[in-house]
Amino acid sequence: xxxxxxxxxxxxxxxxxxxxxxxxxxxxxxxxxxxxxxxxxxxxxxxxxxxxxxxxxxxxxxxxxxxxxxxxxxxxxxxxxxxxxxxxxxxxxxxxxxxxxxxxxxxxxxxxxxxxxxxxxxxxxxxxxxxxxxxxxxxxxxxxxxxxxxxxxxxxxxxxxxxxxxxxxxxxxxxxxxxxxxxxxxxxxxxxxxxxxxxxxxxxxxxxxxxxxxxxxxxxxxxxxxxxxxxxxxxxxxxxxxxxxxxxxxxxxxxxxxxxxxxxxxxxxxxxxxxxxxxxxxxxxxxxxxxxxxxxxxxxxxxxxxxxxxxxxxxxxxxxxxxxxxxxxxxxxxxxxxxxxxxxxxxxxxxxxxxxxxxxxxxxxxxxxxxxxxxxxxxxxxxxxxxxxxxxxxxxxxxxxxxxxxxxxxxxxxxxxxxxxxxxxxxxxxxxxxxxxxxxxxxxxxxxxxxxxxxxxxxxxxxxxxxxxxxxxxxxxxxxxxxxxxxxxxxxxxxxxxxxxxxxxxxxxxxxxxxxxxxxxxxxxxxxxxxxxxxxxxxxxxxxxxxxxxxxxxxxxxxxxxxxxxxxxxxxxxxxxxxxxxxxxxxxxxxxxxxxxx
Length: 598
Hints:
The protein is of the alpha+beta class.
């Protein structure tokens, strides 16, 4: 009951606005929020899938690479020619050079395999010194961990070797070591194959989803992005080395999607850990979510905005009807004569109007009866005369724009009923023209869009009068939005009227008026009105230029141009105004320089 009492006191505008607002906003907010959540979840899953797929692709590249390098190493470990070269004793350096220059398997392999950066063979043969791709395993080499590995083991060893790059950044190369048995001398050599970092970058280059590769829990030997490694620590060999996961990680307050997988190279005890992560994926999703949220709010705002104005319009009509009824109740029958719309409210107003007219008629009859009771005819005539004068004044005071528009509309409908559509169209255009004139009377500013509509109405009416004698074109710079640009009212119509009355006065046909509106720099708006009429002589042009700057009280022509120029200079400043150019038989061009105001 309290709710009903409270709701009964609320104004009808608020009731209507609140009810329709709830009907519109609740479904939009509910379904919009639901779709936003689902879209966000879908985009996050898609980002995870992309990172997982990129990680799988990187793992496949490393698998192919390590397997291919192992197969290449087979060519060297099983090569009897290489074993014979490494087992032989050489008398001098010349003999060493001659023997190894004839061996081209290493150079041909490097030429064919773009994945390889270098191939080197370390030997214990003291008669062989460092030459080309062969090196003597001296004391410093024999103390290295990879060499100590082959003293007790067979097979393959993968390692990462430091490589000093530019900008004081230490990078690592992926290297495979393999033991080459020399059975004839009961010794061995070590084959070292270095992977090309450029090859890896060409295969794994993905700026959106970078990857990083680690070997056996050590430092990473490959970065797609040198500025970020994903903050991943590979497990030690004592832990479970196999990993396959996609999760989220946070770094410096920023959230990332990352995927980690493990690869064991072919016939090796080592492990390669591959980390891939989305560099900007979640940030892009967040931005898209905010964008969709703003769009949803905009979609919600537009109907609310329209709803507000609709309820304002509806409430204003009710208020107008209530005011007219209150005015009639107080005995003031001079109420408005028209009511916007064609619905139940307008029908109620028509009934009120009919009631008022009936009351006025009865009062008028009563007044006439009182006049008849006058004894003297002269007094009666005088009273009737005064009554007629008073009624005339009342009618004259009631002559307002609505009466004028309704009268023109009545004439237009008669022309339509008589199938005279040209006359009907002319009356319609005239009504619009007069409405614009009356609406802007007394205003100090209007929009460029309204001015253009005004002159287009004027030119259309002139075309109806003069047919092909007058043609026109209105061109507006695409960068200008006429409905947002402010100008003084009634600037262009006098210019167009001068072009029609004076410029095209002697044109029998093909008269043309060109209106150009463009913007220069940031602060100036230019409007030119040009015709192809008779133009002016230099003397006539000079006299007209003086006339628009200095008013001549004895002249009545061109007073409109003087007024326009003075209005611009007074309202906008002395740097603005009007310029006129003309040549005899080549037409006249009037230019207005105005400030560009939005």
